[in-house]
Amino acid sequence: MATKAKTVFYCTSCGNESPKWMGRCPACGEWNTMKEAPAEPKKGPASGAAAPRSERRPQRLREIDYSQDARISLGMGEVDRILGGGMVPGSLVLIGGEPGIGKSTLSLQIPLSCRDLRTLYVTGEESAKQVGMRARRLGGDDSNCSIFCETQIETVIEEARAMLPDLMIVDSVQTMYTDSVESAPGSVSQIREVAAALLRFAKESGVPVILIGHITKDGYIAGPKILEHIVDVVLQFEGENRGSYRILRSIKNRFGSTAELAVFEMTGAGLREVANPSELLIPMHEQGLSGVAIAAMLDGTRPLLFEVQALVSSAVYGTAQRSATGFDVRRLNMLLAVLEKRAGFHLSAKDVFLNMAGGLRVSDPACDLAVICAVLSSNFDFAIPADVCFAGEVGLSGEIRPVGQLDRRVQEAARLGFKRMFVSSFAKVEVKPEGLRVVQVADVPALVKALFK
Ligand code: TYD
Ligand code: MG
């Protein structure tokens, strides 16, 4: 049979495979993501998590023995919490993030902070010496951690089988390769095979594996995106590069809740866990700054209060600019349209800039209320008292809608010493913490009246 090198096209965003090139991936709808790669010969067992033989028969649900799956604590409280209470044996966790954000630092700090965890740290990015220097800088090298500089995944897995560590860390998926696929390390097919091999190893041996993957600013490079359905847990490490705060966010978790979030601070001696981010995201400036409002957001199960900053100024050049950092610009435009149409504020000729404090990226609709208050505050140069906070969604007709788990937000606001909290008049507030007055407003005009008088 003539063997012409066959190629196929992969979507770098979702991993969809197609025999011909297309401008738009039919599976995920992304444009310009199809990349050519050599076709892989079909191999024996399909890649994926093949269970050990003994488990390959149907089992009754109640007969499945899950008692051995006690969670492994990683020594960093915030990481354990994000994972849903520690790491599940045999699980594959992907930590994705832009280069330089601190993925290697975080993963090295885990064995350093949990000294009796026998860890195999595989690195294809740095030399053992570099890792050693980093470990010293992070304040410890007497941990139970072995560094292995290797990029061939079969060798890595062989070593791991022999050692059977309590935890294996692989830095990074882009540098590992397997001989069974011909394309270069970092290509879609290599990444898929490497991840599948690690997943098989994790499931068979019960060793939990942390896999690190880079994503570029536009999330474009082949990698973590196509791994999301292979791995058990996806954690994203993000943050404004200029700032020192980093946010670890759970995007997918087969063993716990997503939408959990942990805050770290990058210091000269590594990452420091910020157990109480609210206190840090609300700067203690004196009264009298206009354009700031405090939102009571919920990240997963934890209430988080932070500062929303807005700057409204007259547009100098023709069209007004709208820009938002950490907030959806389309949602900002929608809120501005509501202010214009339902409350009579003329903002169409104004530039509006919005910023979420601490490099936070916000998707909780409860922040709407703080956003419009920050915008109005800046527009009128009227400072909102520092002991006021907000939690409410704004609807298209200007009504203020209730938000989920309001009681937790109210309690957190009271704990942090807030005196007044604006919420929807349709919300039921069950708790009455001392010192905090909950003000219920029905729509934007009512809010403006109550706040700005
Ligand atoms: P790194 O973990 O190498 O990033 P990644 O693996 O995601 O590419 O972190 C790199 C950055 O972290 C680097 O710019 C320097 C900074 N850093 C500190 O500020 N303090 C430290 O103690 C360490 C180890 C790194
Ligand atoms: Mg790194």
Topology diagram in text:
Layout: E1 7-11, E2 17-18, E3 34-38, H1 77-82, E4 92-97, H2 103-113, E5 119-123, H3 128-137, E6 145-149, H4 153-163, E7 167-171, H5 188-205, E8 209-214, H6 224-227, E9 233-238, E10 245-253, E11 261-267, E12 270-274, H7 277-281, E13 292-299, E14 302-314, E15 322-325, H8 329-343, E16 350-356, H9 368-380, E17 388-390, E18 393-394, E19 400-401, H10 406-415, E20 420-424, E21 437-441, H11 444-452
Helix pairs in contact: 4-5
Bound molecules: thymidine-5'-diphosphate and magnesium ion.
Summary keywords:
453 residues; binds thymidine-5'-diphosphate; Ribosomal Protein S5, domain 2; Rossmann fold; seven-stranded mixed β-sheet; globular; 11 helices; binds magnesium ion
Description of the structure:
The longest helix is centred in the middle third of the chain and has 18 residues, at 188-205. Helix 4 (153-163) packs parallel to helix 5. The chain has three domains: 7-38; 71-275, Rossmann fold (3-Layer(aba) Sandwich), CATH 3.40.50; 280-451, Ribosomal Protein S5, domain 2 (2-Layer Sandwich), CATH 3.30.230. It has eleven helices and 21 strands. It has helices spanning 77-82, 103-113, 128-137, 153-163, 188-205, 224-227, 277-281, 329-343, 368-380, 406-415, 444-452, and strands spanning 7-11, 17-18, 34-38, 92-97, 119-123, 145-149, 167-171, 209-214, 233-238, 245-253, 261-267, 270-274, 292-299, 302-314, 322-325, 350-356, 388-390, 393-394, 400-401, 420-424, 437-441. Strands 6-5-7-8-4-9-10-11-12 form a nine-stranded mixed beta sheet, with helices on both faces. The chain has a seven-stranded mixed beta sheet with strand order 15-16-14-13-17-20-21. Strands 2-1-3 form a three-stranded antiparallel beta sheet, with no helix packed on it. Residues 44-48 have low confidence and may be disordered. With 453 residues, it is an alpha/beta fold. It starts with 6 loop residues before the first strand and ends with a helix. Bound molecules: thymidine-5'-diphosphate and magnesium ion (MG). Residues 103-104, 125, 171 line the site of magnesium ion (MG).
